[in-house]
Structure formats: C-alpha cells, structure tokens
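Anyone? Bumping this.
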Amino acid sequence: MLLGAANAFLVSGFLSDWAYAGSTEIQWKNFASWLIIGGLVFTGFALLWTLVDLIRVPPSRGPRLVAFVLLFGAFLLGIVDELVHAKDAWASMPEALILSGVAAVLAIAATAIASAAPGGGRALT
Amino acid sequence: MNTKPVKTISLLGLLIAAPLALGALAQEADLPQYGPDPKLPAPYRGLLPTMKIANPAAWDDRRPQAAQGYIVRAIATDLKIPRQTLVLPNGDILVAEGRGGADPTLTPKDFIAGIIKAKGVTHVESGNRLTLLQDRDGDGSYKEQTVFADHLNAPYGLALVGDQLYVANQDALVRFDYRDGQTRASGPPVKLTDLPSFMNHHWTKALAASADGRFLYVGIGSNSNITERGMLAEVDRAQIWEVDAKTGAHRAFATGTRNPTALAIQPGTGQLWAIANERDEIGPDLVPDYLTSVKDGGFYGWPYSYWGQNVDTRVHPQDPQKVAAAIRPDYSLGSHVAALGVAFSAPSMGGRFAEGVFVGEHGSWNRQTPSGYKVVFVPFSNGRPSGPPVDFLDGFMGDDGKTRGRPVGVTVDGRGALIVADDLSNTIWRVTAAKP
C-alpha cells in the first residue's frame, strides 16, 4: 500500500513535469512540486517499513536489500528533485524532468522486487 | 547482485555533493556595482538559494548613524508599519502605514520561504491608515500625532496636487480633499481608478504627480520573481502607469520594470525618475537594483532580460525582440539592496547633499554578506547621476549582526530635513544638519 502510493505520486510528478516541459504552463510544475512531496512522504514510510522487515525477517534478505537500496535511491533523488523544483520557472529544466523520471523508475523497480521477494515485502505492496 | 545498488549510491552521492560543493564556491566578489556600467558576473544558483534574513532587535540606546555634520532623531515611534511619507506645504508630515500582499501559496517553496522571510520584518498589525505628524512650535520634535484617515487598504504612494491628496492603496488609487492645516480627512476617499491587485506579490503602489498635476504615475510591481507564477499573473504588472488625474484613465507609460518601488519628478526638468528592484536567485551580484530616468514607452527588460540585453534563461518561452528592445537603466545601486524610497534633494539640505537623490535601501535577503540597510545619496550634476553613492544614514544593521531598522520611504522637507520611514522599528527618523 505504501509503495503503491509512493509510485503513484512519483509517476504523477514525472508526468506533470513532462506536461510542463511540453506546455510551459507553470501550473504543471506546481503540481509536480507537491506530488513529489507526497512521493517523499510515502517513500519515507516505505523505507522505514522495509528496514524493519529486513531486520525482523532473516531468511533470504538479498532481494529485499536490493529493494531497500533502490527505494533509498528514489528517496534521495526525490529530495534533490524537490530542491531543483524550487528554482524559479524554467530554471528547473531539464534536471527536474530527468530526476523525477529516474526516481519513479527506481521506486517501481523496488516495488517489483519487493513484491516478488520471498518472505517479506507483503506489508508494503 | 550487490554491485548495481552500490553504484547507484555513489552516483547519488555525486549528485548531491556536487551542487553543495559548488554552493561553497559561489563567493561574493563585492564587485564595484555602482553607476552606469556595473560589472555583471555570470548567473549562478546552487541547489538552495542563499538566504540571510535580518535578525531584528530593539534600538534601545542606539541610533542610526547620520553622515558627518548631520544629526538624526526619531519624530514618531510605535507606528503601524510606516512606509512612505509626504511633507505637506505647511510642514506637517503624512505617513502611509500598512502591510499588503496577497501571495497565494502555490508551491512548497512559497510555504517555506514565507515562514523564513517573516523573521526579518515587523509583526505589528497593518495600520491601513495615514497618520499626520505636526510640529506646531517648529522645534523639530513633532509632538502632535493624529490619524488623518483610516480603513485604507495598505496605502503606500502619496502625492499632493493643489487641494487634492492622492493615495495609492494596494488595490486602487484614491483621493481626499485637503485644506491647509487639516488634521482629519473630511470624509471617505473617492476612488480614481482600480489598480492591478488580483494576486499582489509585489503589492506596493508607488506614486508621483507630474509637475503640472495633470497626470499621476503609479509604479506596479511584478507578481513573481521571474514568472514562476505564470505569465497570466503578470498582466498589467511590472509597469509604470500614467493616470489622468481628472478621468482616472490610464496607459502603460513604461514596462519591464520588475518592481518600481518609488517614483519622483525631477525639479526643474519635470522628468520622471524611478527606482526598481531587480530579480533574485541568480547570484549575490545579480541583478543590480537601479535608479533611472523613465522613458515614455520604454521597456526595461523584465522578465526576458536584465541590464539591457542579458537574457534570463529562467523565462520560457523567450522573446528575442523584447530583449533587443530592452533599455539599460541609468544607474546601478548594487544588487539586492532593495531600494524602496527615492527623493530629490534641495539646496536646503546643504553642502555636498544639495544636488542629487536620496535612496532608502531596505536591505537584502538573497546574499550572504548583506547589502543595503541604509539611506544613500546619489550626487547629480547637470541633472544626471555624477558619482558613486554616499552613505547618508547608516547603522540600521549593527556590528553585532542585529538589525534595528529597515529604511523605506525617504522625503525631503524643503526646510532642510530628510524624513525616513523605518518599517522594522516602526519609527519615523528626521535627519538635519547639526547646528554649528
């Protein structure tokens, strides 16, 4: 559930950035800024849960560790992305679009790996 | 299986570390940025904007420091955010008090920056009134203080033409009847024209009357730093209007002036001059705020370019034709000084301050080494700026890093005094030559 929400926010953020890049309509950039905040909140909680899961459920940690690291990457990129969005108007382009895209891909990859992982990740997906 | 994530982390580390390291390199060169030809470095902005917000403190026993041979005294305190003043023919002083602005919180940045910047300003409630200061016995102490008019909407610019007192509220230009010696408005004001106020980021409406009194010039600031609220928000913004005093009809007299915070008519020539605050967040030495004579129909660059043809790439789409048409302002006051008041001097100010303009500088936020926080004098000769600015009233920011006042409007009293409004300590200062 947490990962699902994080993915939804991050993907929407990327799509909003894309819409801004295509239209220069500033409202898309405003949407993206808030959507990435939403993504950060859910990614942050998902990270916490993943960590607890890693510690508490010992067998076959490998895939879940990968999911954790990917998710951590998405989180850090999201923070940088949010700061880049705070640059006024077009100054955030094209970095914002790239960062949003990579963060969304990392989060989706983490979700895919976590949901396929044996023993853990059920609470997240 | 573990190599990939490790790689991701180091890449992330680089991504984060690089801009921060660059941020440390963004040194402030303290370039000589005064006059007609300021040095402009390349635009730069790190991952976070540079912010150094005033750290307010009480004056207690301290006072601002006037230029040698001049003394300063507080003639009114505990006002409700004084911004601009007007010296009436009989020597009474009108003070416009209030806080305006209607900034929508559109982004997380708006939300956070709002909280941070609020630390550097007063928290007194908006006066929304005009206070009249009187000095009946002429000893310079202004003991009588009355409310001339209230229930206004963030009044800022003031101008007197004959028996009409014009007040630029943040949303409308209004007028009162005024008789010599009057201490209270005879009724509510009459609206001459609405002013752009749908959204009001740079809300202050500067005001000056033409020498013949037929026209009023109104300075209207932009609704953003650099179009980050969209171009629709900038309709009728970043302009100086010429308003017909009889009918209220207006036309854009000049455009592209990002935030024209004060206007003044040059004695003798009748030429309109303006000070304007330029854009932020492209470095400590960009972009200089300026003083300029205003050309009818002139375009001064915002948002497409600054200081003539220096393109601002944050604006998208660009407009090369507008960039080509952009006028270079006459005189740089330095970057981020936040000039908010301008007044032509008079021979009664004496000596080296007889010919030129005074400029009130509210002070910077987007700069590690603060700039502004003082009143400077720009000397003129033959009707043009003729040298670097001279500090006239300083000490608003103390050696201890605390800020005790922030100058806004400056007005010359023909009897030989400069009136300075201070919207942090809510004080009116009066600077005069020391008696020999």
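Late reply, but here is one note on the structure posted above: Residues 2-116 of chain A form one domain.
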